[in-house]
Amino acid sequence: MTAYFIRRALFAVFVLWGAVTIVFLVLRLVPGDPAQLILGSDATQAEIAQLREQMGLNRPLAVQYGIYLGDVVRFDFGDSYRYHSDAMGLVTEKFPLTLQLAVVAMVIGLVLGVALGVLGALRVNRLADRIVSVFALLSQSMPSFWIGIMFILVFARQLHVLASGGHGGFDRLILPGVTLALPLVAVLIRLTRSGLLDVVHENYIQTARAKGLSERLVISQHAIRNALIPIVTVAGLEFGKLLGGAVIVETVFSWPGVGRLLIDSISARDYNVVQAAILLIAGGFVLINLVVDVLYGYLDPRIRLGR
Amino acid sequence: MDDPLLAVRDLTVRFRTRAGTVTAVDRVGFDLAEGETLAILGETGSGKSVTAQALMGLVPRPAGEVTGGRIVYAGTDLLTRPRSERRRLNGTDLAMVFQDPLSSLNPVFRVGAQIGELFRRRRGASRAEARRQAIELMDRVGIPAASRRVDDYPHQFSGGMRQRVMIAMAIALQPRVLIADEPTTALDVTVQAQVMALLAELKAEHRMAMILISHDLGVVAGVADRVMLMYAGRVVETGGLREVYETTGHPYTRGLMASIPALDGPRERLTPIKGSPPDLTRLSVSCPFQPRCDFATDVCGTERPELAPVPGRPGSHRAACHHAKEVAADVVPH
Description:
The complex is a heterodimer.
Chain A: H1 2-29, H2 34-39, H3 45-55, H4 61-73, H5 87-122, H6 127-141, H7 144-158, H8 171-200, H9 203-210, H10 215-252, H11 258-267, H12 271-299, H13 301-306
Helix pairs in contact in A: 1-12, 5-6, 5-8, 5-10, 5-12, 6-8, 7-8, 8-10, 9-10, 10-11, 10-12, 11-12
Chain B: E1 6-17, E2 20-32, E3 37-41, H1 48-56, E4 64-73, E5 76-77, H2 83-89, E6 94-97, H3 101-104, H4 111-123, H5 127-140, H6 146-149, H7 159-171, E7 177-181, H8 189-206, E8 209-214, H9 217-221, E9 226-231, E10 234-240, H10 241-246, H11 251-258, H12 298-302, E11 308-309, E12 318-319, H13 324-328
Helix pairs in contact in B: 4-5, 4-7, 5-7, 7-8
Membrane topology (chain B): Peripheral membrane protein
InterPro entries (chain B): AAA+_ATPase, ABC_Ni/Peptide_Import, ABC_transporter-like_ATP-bd, ABC_transporter-like_CS, Oligopep_ABC_C, P-loop_NTPase
Pfam family, one (chain B): oligo_HPY
């Protein structure tokens, strides 16, 4: 067990290093000079060159990378060029808002996805199942930014029941939460439905029926627990995607989370903030994966004891 | 004579498959008296397991469907009763032990919970009471250290012990009919005998009637009162164990007997039944066994034989063969 966690921790470090490295390189390959952007279009070449030297941007890429990694290892993520404050501090300040959105979307996704998936499996190939399947197809194929804009048009502009954006009370969470949740709902509907349909053909379901248990008990006790195993895995991975996917939804709904900060920082070539944000999101992803593994063992005793 | 506990008449089960409709069970009928053991024998695909599923109301829907016949249990035709009412008979009146105990136990629940569930859900027992009864039952079916193993999961048990768990679940509510579908097929040979002995013992203890489904004539010989052979969804021969084993009335039964090695006789080459079981989607008017039969004549290709008393044998011994008399008299054909 200890060896397993050590292996997992080493792997996590490797993943974070990979994420940081890729972001570091991509940012510097993209055209656009932070010094130019900070000083504005009136700045002279000499002024820009001077600022580049101050920021260390004139040094070879490998040296910049080495210095950056050295800082990161000491938990120094650099300062924001724009706000002149600790980059990671800026990100962690916004993180609870993104987490809030992701958790709301996750809850909506799990409740709606699993419930509709069970409904589809119980009424397979009947009307309810078809409606659920069409809903899943639509939820999956409509892009978030478009759904978000439609929601704003209908619920904010036309019906005036919900605010179009910003953060505040619970009501402001509904539209971005649902928008973020819809693709997840679609995935979980499909997974629950097909998983349950597979499980229902297992021999132990026949055993449960031979015991004289009602069909309701057969499904809710014997089938669901087995169908949940793949659902937990996927839901965990999807939660990681929600943290990243919030970027679009936060922009559409002016939600001041990490996603918005990330987009703004990319536009401003605020390298350190972008790197810190990606590192945090990747870290969240790794952590969730670990939680999923532990949950997985709880749901499936064969895995728990095999390890 | 009293009414039998279970009387099956003209039971027909059809399956829709991509290749067409298959009649998996074709007008099967038999009686089962209290305390009696009936063995249903046949190759894979002969319809014996589907017959068991039909009795338990477990024919997989929507592909499969009982399309005709009657299953009269204790005076009631089960096929006329609503599904939920039939379901409630499972466990208390009709119970079943399945072939593969590993896949037939739910992998994510402790065995104690799976046995105890019967007492909790069907008898309203408390969690503690159900657990106590589960331990008692596990002890009864010969699982060592039952009070410790009650909290183990199915994959932590050996094959034989898993089948004992299945048997414990089947007898938990003291059913009147126990259906055992190839209960020893997935087990080691040494364990097979132990499990069969346990089944026979429990049957006597609880005065249960038993339907033992098998493809192995040897397994059946020790416990069955009567045997019924199925081929291509139909009953081809039925009678008392000795009647059928000593003087077979159907070439298929003969073939099955010839493919078993004898421990005492001279060492001979085993004779397998030639050919393979028929494709049930392409059955014609002919006798389904005709292509594999040494006794076949012209009539076998034009007329499907019905189950009838074997000439010169006790009335309970019946076979579906135009040449039953020759087969029984052991006349070498042609």
